[in-house]
């Protein structure tokens, strides 16, 4: 399995196994075991790399009671920062299977804690505390607890935790699981995790600012899972094409989140000296300091990134003379948002940058917060304010912002306001940023763009005029225009020029199109020309053909260039930078194309890139022959009332089976499609026959002809009934129940045969596909890679002009329809209808009283008093 399949498989199995256990507790076991496996495998790898034969490890890695004076204990402790005896290694636990008990695990974790080198206490001290304290929640007794622990270990046993490329898999799986647990943790329990897309947008903004520096120090005072820090590191790598020298400072108050921070940072393979962590309250005790003994010696960093708890309480009184706040003011006691912001700003270097997530209220609330805003504006610290979509964070649905600040900025540069609240996709019960949304935010902030209804650079003078209120709608109106109804057009027809002018970008980019569709009937109104059908007129116009041709020419050679870059030169692809390079090329090609939203095109690439990158990682890690491999498709099923993982067919390690069948086994695939269509026809015929049977005929003697749900025939019963008719030579007349049942029996027999043939054909095709993948030539591999990576993406690119034009056509048709019928015509139709009704009523007969009433009603319809 690739990393995505592996992560999803682990989550599915883990979630099925969790049962009633709270997700917040369960994550301690899954993530804790995964981290312990990493530490165990790292130690084994270390000793083997240093000349200790694997078969000697059981003897050399003695248990803790004998280890303190042992050379291997000292060696591991000095170089790794910890020591794990052989009997306590994850693989040793796994090998014990049913004999592994709770004491083996709990004592092993305590021995690990005792073995940690003093210099690494900040990384490992009490890191399994949450794990140990939660064991009792796994069951009522030690036996039940041990059984659950063994099952959890089995779920994560296949995650690779070695060095090199395995870090990418391990990091991906760990981040994926953290996100899943956060999403399932319930209200107020998912705060330890910042959604990946938000973290990515913040990290890209920061990385742009610091990417050229040789050494970088970054800090998160409320680090949670550590994902914000890690995203900055990865973003710097993508921009610089190198890992760089990054030192991470992480502080977290909550023990379980602090453990996550340390695990996540350690498992990314960073040098221990580049990870500095502390458990504590950032506001209560200022940190970080330069020396490890917490002697106060202020450390200023290149970047700070954070997602602090929203509107938390803090001890304002003790901060009265704190230098972090004296220049700007003290945040309210019940709303610490600006206290976190000022703490972080204080720790920035003069050329540093910070991004912080805050509740929307910090932009406009009064009192002390207004004073702080005033100082931040006057001291020119605020670079940008970015409004995010609502309901995007776990644990809260409130509106949030990202604020970008710098210690020193160029004078009179203003504040960039970005309303990114409209760009998102629904992801389950939450909203999430799409790649196009992330990219647009990042590009807008870096380039400080003014974009209509999206972003605007606002001067300090304008902010002063608004009393330092930073509420985004004051500066960027992203609301939809209210629908306009023209009184003249409503009464007499025609389309107002004001509404046609809404499409000025189209008219400018498609010269002559407006005039070919509309004729002017007054200085202010036009109408659709006689005989013109809007759809055809747009599609046939010369300027539209030119627009489509310009787009096509913009991407001339792109498909071939992508093939050369990603497939022919696959070995040279730099996974750190290639996505950014291709993205830049796409935007460069679109630079001269009007009407097209660059980010819409980019989204098609981003959708494809997720799969391309995954395949590239597999091939570069495992070699070209990985394209010729298949792996078991493992799924979780219930067996003997237990959730177990079983194989359900096969998957291509790189290639999708359906793609291979479509390209190399088209005839077989067509034959199967014919059987599927035949099966669908038979199913429809049976449904038709079933509907024709009256309910009173469902029972024939002691036999029921319908299934238990009562929505279809009971196959065996209908077949037996039809057989008895034939045996007894009963008459089957046209249109009778017997004829219906005989037809149904025949259709059921054909359906069963077709289903059998289909299953046989599908099994045979699966076998042929496995054989085809195993015997792929290099040329076929390249052909399939092109089809899997590039063909669909490019087709989506070239469909974009059609989508753009369809939007115009739909809007113009709606506008034509809006004023197609005037109120005058409606009134005439009403009068005509009333007159016809009055005439008809005059033909009615009845009593004198009835006729008098009918006459009065008829007069009313004729318009008489």
UniProtKB/TrEMBL annotation:
EC id: 2.1.1.72
Sections of the chain in a coiled coil: 738-768
Catalytic reaction list: a 2'-deoxyadenosine in DNA + S-adenosyl-L-methionine = an N(6)-methyl-2'-deoxyadenosine in DNA + S-adenosyl-L-homocysteine + H(+)
Coiled coil keyword on record: yes
Gene Ontology BP annotations: DNA restriction-modification system; methylation
Keywords (A to Z) from UniProt: Coiled coil, Methyltransferase, Restriction system, S-adenosyl-L-methionine, Transferase
Pfam families, per database record: HsdM_N, N6_Mtase
Domain DNA methylase adenine-specific as annotated: residue spans: 166-482
N6 adenine-specific DNA methyltransferase N-terminal domain: residues covered: 6-96
GO molecular function: DNA binding; N-methyltransferase activity; site-specific DNA-methyltransferase (adenine-specific) activity
Record-stated family: Belongs to the N(4)/N(6)-methyltransferase family.
Protein's name in the database: site-specific DNA-methyltransferase (adenine-specific)
Originating species: Rothia amarae
